[in-house]
Amino acid sequence: MCRVLIEEYGRHITRIAVSLFEAIAQALNLELSGDQRSELLSESTGLIRVYRYPQSSSVEAEGEALGMEVHTDSSVISILKEDETGGLEIMKGEEWLRVKPVADTLIINLGDMMQDEYKGVKHRVKKKDRTRERHSADVQSLGAKVSLH
To answer: Which of 128, 142, 136 is nearest to 65 (CA)?
Structure first.
C-alpha cells in the first residue's frame, strides 16, 4: 500500500516538475523538441527519496543534530515536501539561512543539470528539535544535462 501511494505521489510531483521545466525553458527561449523534453523530465528519469530523521531522548542527543551534509542536487529539478519540524538550510553567499517550514507547500530546487548560468543551491538539513521525528520526501527529475546555450 505504501509503495503504491509513493509511486502515485511521484507521478503527481513529476507532472509539476515538467510544468515548471517547460515554463523555465520558455522563459529562457530554449528550443527543445518534444523528444528532448520527455527525455529530460519523465517518470522514468525520476527518483523519489523519503527521509526519516528519528527522535532521540538520550543525553548524547543534546545539542544540534546534523541531518544531511552540505550538498547540491544532481538533478534538473528537485521538489521537496518537508514536515513542520523543519531543518532545511540554504547557503546564500557565505551565510546559512534556515528555511521556515510552511504547511502545504513544496520547495523547488534547480539542480546541477541546469548547467551554465544556473547552479544548484548548496543546502543541508540540521534538525534542531531532537524530541521529534522529521520526515521529508524529495522527487528529483534526473534526465540529461541541460545546456542553456
So the answer is: 128
